[in-house]
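=== RUN LOG ===
request id: a7f3
mode: sequence -> structure
chains: 1
length: 515
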Amino acid sequence: MTLKLHNTLTSTVDTFTPLTEGKVTLYTCGPTVYDYPHVGNWASFIYWDILVRTLIASGYTVERVMNLTDVGHLVSDADEGEDKLEKGARRENKTAWEVAEFYAEDFLAGMEKLGLLPPEHIVRATDFITQQIDLVRILKEKGFTYQTTDGIYFDTAKFPAYANFARLDLEAQKAGARVEASDEKRQPWDFALWKFTEPGITRDMQWETPDDLLELPPIGQEYGVGSKGHANRTLTPYSLLPTSNDEVVYGFPGWHLECSAMAMSILGPTIDIHTGGIDHIPVHHTNEIAQSEAASEARFANFWLHNNHLKIDGGKISKSLGNGYTLQDLEAKGFSALDLRLFILQGQYTSEGNFTFENLTAAQNRLKNWRDYAVLRHQIHDGLHDDDKKNDDHETYVSLQAASGALREALQNNLNTPEALRIVDEAFARVDGKSLDRIHRHGLVSFLESVDELLGVQLIDTTPDIDDEAKRTILERERAREAKDWVKSDQLRDTLARAGISVRDMPSGTVWSRI
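=== RESULT ===
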């Protein structure tokens, strides 16, 4: 089946075709590693994990880059305010490097708990400073930059298609409506490529600005910016701006610059798919496109995929409300990372989600139910399933194989995870109530493998067989029931329960599951 994806670039669901047959290049906007990710952050990475799994199931090899933003992400879209890493360092009385390392490791551990496939390249912005400086240099040589007292900016007026991606109405957009006004910006939506370290401040993360990126004023003269509307105005420079090539200006990259430099240096000037949150569209991804395409003179990405917001109890996620729940918060309340994963998959990535603990509990129960079916594979004997034997297990096999195909097709239809989950529920419902000798073991195992490969819920890994002692206890209990020794039967049931095993008495025998 053809793979179809909602492409923000065209605002339609388009048939996906990669640049190179059989191979997909993919860039995922990763976290800013200054604090614990909350459930809304994780939703994005869960959806893009499903994207990768669907691409692989569709026969593609995937080369993916995901960044860890460990510098340059300011708290304001106006390129003002404190760097989030520096803010985290001040909060925790650590260096920015220490904060970045701690939360990067926490994020990677969270990825593993959630069953996210690791990208081929997980890269840190601080490891790509040279490439980012090179990109600024290219943009300057092509005439797309100008310098203010606080940094080097991209001149969006030089890029006529700037408003196209997010369909921005720049004429109607007043200065300060989207970003705060700056006397030195030529347009209020111009953005920083490289920020200078403020005078009198030493940052944990700062690098020497190459001389060829700077516009040096004549010695002894004030530094002139020449902003639009201020052509005759001269501005006093930061004390750290040089008046000769012998002085050093320290600085750090802008948040938008990092993604372009990392994506293009690893994957090339044009990539197949770029993913991120819907909130990235009007600023971050718009700026990525502008700087990337201005530098390369080629389309940056053919497909842009964006996941919608996740609300909490119908409202926004806010630290002031204390509802930015982390994986650690959920674990403290008795929920696993895989419970969260299944909850997120109950909604399609383009739809707005709503997190409540009632909804999370429903996902937890659903996952528990799926695991109860998964453990049946340990209780079915291969010898009962001779292919020449004419019984209902052939029907079960065909049904489960068809469900595997339908599951893949649902995901190929714009990552329709709600439909995929419905298909899994229906497949298990067809197995429900069947005696063990009427369930095709190979068909069940094959279906479980498909569910795990496509949805990543780890049904096989989380449902090991019980030990021999528990099996002997079940057998002893069956004999007690046959002898109508109900007291002993109940005692053995309690023994199994203390070991985390529940039993159901079916016409075909005892069926066990994990509590």
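=== NOTES ===
Residues 218-240, 383-391 have pLDDT under 50 and may be disordered.
Residues 468-514 form one domain.
=== END ===
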